[in-house]
Protein backbone atom coordinates (compact mmCIF):
# COMPACT_ATOMS: atom_id res chain seq x y z
CA UNK A 1 0.00 0.00 0.00
CA UNK A 2 2.50 2.60 1.16
CA UNK A 3 5.74 2.61 -0.79
CA UNK A 4 8.51 4.26 1.19
CA UNK A 5 10.69 4.52 -1.93
CA UNK A 6 8.04 6.31 -4.03
CA UNK A 7 8.45 9.91 -5.18
CA UNK A 8 5.31 10.92 -3.28
CA UNK A 9 5.86 11.58 0.39
CA UNK A 10 4.40 9.18 2.94
CA UNK A 11 2.08 11.95 4.10
CA UNK A 12 0.71 12.44 0.61
CA UNK A 13 0.32 8.70 0.01
CA UNK A 14 -1.65 8.41 3.25
CA UNK A 15 -3.91 11.29 2.16
CA UNK A 16 -4.56 9.66 -1.23
CA UNK A 17 -5.40 6.32 0.42
CA UNK A 18 -7.51 8.12 3.06
CA UNK A 19 -5.75 6.46 6.00
CA UNK A 20 -4.21 8.13 9.01
CA UNK A 21 -0.50 8.77 8.85
CA UNK A 22 -0.10 7.27 12.33
CA UNK A 23 -1.32 3.90 11.09
CA UNK A 24 1.51 3.88 8.55
CA UNK A 25 4.12 3.99 11.31
CA UNK A 26 2.29 1.77 13.82
CA UNK A 27 4.10 -1.41 14.87
CA UNK A 28 2.20 -3.76 17.21
CA UNK A 29 3.90 -4.58 20.49
CA UNK A 30 4.72 -8.22 21.14
CA UNK A 31 2.71 -9.96 23.85
CA UNK A 32 4.63 -10.44 27.08
CA UNK A 33 5.20 -13.89 28.52
CA UNK A 34 3.46 -12.77 31.71
CA UNK A 35 0.28 -11.85 29.80
CA UNK A 36 0.32 -15.20 28.00
CA UNK A 37 0.62 -17.00 31.34
CA UNK A 38 -2.30 -15.00 32.77
CA UNK A 39 -4.37 -15.77 29.66
CA UNK A 40 -3.75 -19.50 30.17
CA UNK A 41 -4.83 -19.20 33.80
CA UNK A 42 -7.93 -17.30 32.70
CA UNK A 43 -8.78 -20.08 30.23
CA UNK A 44 -8.63 -22.66 33.01
CA UNK A 45 -10.69 -20.48 35.35
CA UNK A 46 -13.32 -19.84 32.65
CA UNK A 47 -13.76 -23.59 32.27
CA UNK A 48 -14.25 -24.02 36.02
CA UNK A 49 -16.34 -20.88 36.57
CA UNK A 50 -18.07 -19.92 33.29
CA UNK A 51 -20.26 -17.43 35.16
CA UNK A 52 -17.33 -15.50 36.65
CA UNK A 53 -16.90 -11.87 35.71
CA UNK A 54 -13.75 -9.78 35.78
CA UNK A 55 -14.01 -9.04 39.52
CA UNK A 56 -14.41 -12.67 40.52
CA UNK A 57 -11.66 -13.75 38.13
CA UNK A 58 -9.36 -11.11 39.62
CA UNK A 59 -10.07 -12.52 43.07
CA UNK A 60 -9.44 -16.10 41.92
CA UNK A 61 -6.16 -15.05 40.31
CA UNK A 62 -5.17 -13.25 43.51
CA UNK A 63 -5.73 -16.49 45.45
CA UNK A 64 -3.29 -18.14 43.04
CA UNK A 65 -0.72 -15.41 43.69
CA UNK A 66 -1.29 -13.41 40.52
CA UNK A 67 -2.01 -9.80 41.48
CA UNK A 68 -3.43 -7.92 38.49
CA UNK A 69 -6.21 -5.39 38.22
CA UNK A 70 -9.79 -6.02 37.18
CA UNK A 71 -9.46 -3.96 34.02
CA UNK A 72 -6.41 -5.92 32.90
CA UNK A 73 -8.36 -9.14 33.50
CA UNK A 74 -11.17 -7.73 31.37
CA UNK A 75 -8.76 -6.76 28.60
CA UNK A 76 -7.16 -10.19 28.53
CA UNK A 77 -10.59 -11.88 28.60
CA UNK A 78 -11.90 -9.86 25.66
CA UNK A 79 -12.29 -12.17 22.62
CA UNK A 80 -11.07 -9.49 20.20
CA UNK A 81 -7.98 -8.87 22.30
CA UNK A 82 -7.33 -12.61 22.56
CA UNK A 83 -7.50 -12.92 18.77
CA UNK A 84 -5.02 -10.07 18.40
CA UNK A 85 -2.69 -11.68 20.96
CA UNK A 86 -2.88 -14.99 19.13
CA UNK A 87 -2.15 -13.32 15.80
CA UNK A 88 0.86 -11.58 17.31
CA UNK A 89 2.29 -14.76 18.84
CA UNK A 90 1.47 -17.46 16.31
CA UNK A 91 3.51 -17.84 13.13
CA UNK A 92 1.74 -17.20 9.85
CA UNK A 93 0.55 -20.35 8.11
CA UNK A 94 1.05 -20.36 4.37
CA UNK A 95 -0.95 -22.89 2.34
Helical residue percent? 55-70%
Shape: elongated
Order of helices and strands: HHHHHH
By secondary-structure content and strand pairing, the structural class works out as mainly alpha
- Total discrete domains: 2
- Largest sheet, strands/sense/barrel: none
Distance between the termini: 23 Å
Fraction in beta strands? under 5%
Radius of gyration: 19 Å
How many DSSP helices?
6
Low-pLDDT runs: none
> Average pLDDT across residues?
83
List the helices and strands and how they pair.
Elements (H helix, E strand, L loop, with lengths): L9 H8 L3 H5 L7 H16 L5 H10 L6 H8 L1 H11 L6
Helix pairs in contact: 4-5
Please tell me about this protein's structure.
This protein is mainly α. It has two domains: 1-29, no CATH class; 33-89. The longest helix is centred in the middle third of the chain and has 16 residues, at 33-48. The chain starts with 9 loop residues before the first helix and ends in a 6-residue tail after the last helix. The chain has helices at residues 10-17, 21-25, 33-48, 54-63, 70-77, 79-89. The protein is built from six helices and no strands. The mean pLDDT is 83.
Amino acid sequence: MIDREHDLSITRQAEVLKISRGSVYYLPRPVSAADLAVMQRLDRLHLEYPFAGSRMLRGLLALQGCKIGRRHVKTLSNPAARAAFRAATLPAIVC
